[in-house]
Amino acid sequence: MWKKLTIILILINLFLPTLPASAEVDKQKIYQQRMSLYKEVELISHIPWHYFAAIDQYERNVRSVRRDIPKKQDGVISIYFKPEIWSGSLNPNQNDKQPFTIALFGGIGLDGDNDGYADQNNDRDLLYTMANIIGHYGNNREHIKIMLWEHYKRAKTVELITGFSRMYAHYGKIDIEGNAFPVPISSNHSYRSTFGARRSFGGLRSHEGTDIFAGYGVPVRATCYGIIETKGWNRLGGWRIGIRDLHNNYHYYAHLGGFSKDVKLGQIVEPGTVVGFVGSSGYGPPGTAGKFPPHLHYGLYKDNGYTEWSFDPYIHLRLWKQQELMRIRKK
Q: CA 57, CA 50: separation in Å to the nearest integer?
């Protein structure tokens, strides 16, 4: 099975140089359209564009994994409002696009482009309505956080959106992409799919990740652009770090022997940033080590706006390694 998977990944990478030319152009056009819309609403609302980019990206991520939210029909903005919120809960027409009757029934939908309609499939209407919501008390960071809480009623969502906003502001753009393998390609390491395997320490459970075996002290690298969300000791994972990327994924690095001296909570990292070193910590109180061979436990978790669950990182690790090898060969 894994031989077939490897062949598929190699074929994908072999054809990457010929396929993405038009696809990459289309993707860049979409990025440009989104950025133009964010900046347009920034001028009107005086709310920094990166908040709109962050909200839009968060909701795009949620839409990709939720069946209760319809797919976007038109445009490039993925912000979604439930019909009863947009049109008003007592409105007999839940697809109402008339600003007057929407307001009459307590709906929040607004006409952002002055065409006489408040349409959920209109990008400007969506962004203008969201600007009206998050700018209710003002356009500074704390006021926006309050209104994000009022709108989403979930602290984790507010944390993710404000984190995304920081990243977009830091880079000054929204096309932030790229990945790296968790340990240097040149290091002596090995791994296989171990997701779902039986584990017994701390109670019978399944393994939520892939173990990458390597020697003590081998650098552990960020696999993505993201923000360090957790750092410290975990009874099972030992010294561990968690990084949140722009796709609502939580990257979990466990059993570390130590952290990079420059790493701190809230730090923005890039693919390849060294965050720690391979060790054998965990399965006990702080400082416990040596209960198993040195390795990196690497896990991936997805947030869908309600909860978070683990998924098998193995195929992603294989792909990232193949991509990195391709980049090295091109140098």
A: 10
pTM: 0.88
Q: Which of 271, 273, 155, 164 is nearest to 219 (CA)?
A: 273
pLDDT, tens digit (0-9, with 9 covering 90-100), for 254-278: 999 999 998 999 999 999 999 999 9
Contacts of 289 by beta carbon, 8 Å cutoff, 6+ apart: 238, 257, 279, 280, 281, 282
What DSSP letter does each residue of 85-147 carry, written as one string?
HHH-TT-S-TT---HHHHHHTT-----SSSSS---TT-HHHHHHHHHHHHTSS-SSHHHHHHH
CA distances in angstroms from 272 to 88, 161, 224, listed in the order given? 48, 24, 8
Bridge-based pairing of strands 308-311 and 219-221 is unpaired
d(C-alpha 296, C-alpha 241), whole Å = 11
Instruction: Provide the pairing of β-strand 189-191 with 308-311.
Output: unpaired
The residues near 174 (Cβ < 8 Å, ≥ 6 apart) are: 31, 34, 35, 38, 53, 57, 168
pLDDT tens track for 167-213: 999 999 999 999 999 999 999 999 988 876 666 555 555 667 899 99
At 238, the amino acid letter reads: G
pLDDT > 80? residue 73: no
DSSP β-bridge partners for residue 274: 221
Domain 189-330 class, CATH top level: mainly beta
pLDDT at 297: 95
How do residues 94-117 score in pLDDT, each as one tens digit?
Answer: 999 999 999 999 999 999 999 999
E strands, 150-307, where? Answer: 189-191, 198-199, 205-206, 210-214, 219-221, 226-234, 238-245, 249-259, 268-269, 274-278, 295-303
pLDDT for position 205: 56
* Residue of 33, 240, 46 lying closest to 123 (CA atoms): 33
Closest by CA to 314, choosing from 306, 322, 326, is 322
Neighbours of 310 (CB within 10 A): 17
203 token code pair: 């109670």
Q: CB–CB of 283/200 below 8 Å?
A: no
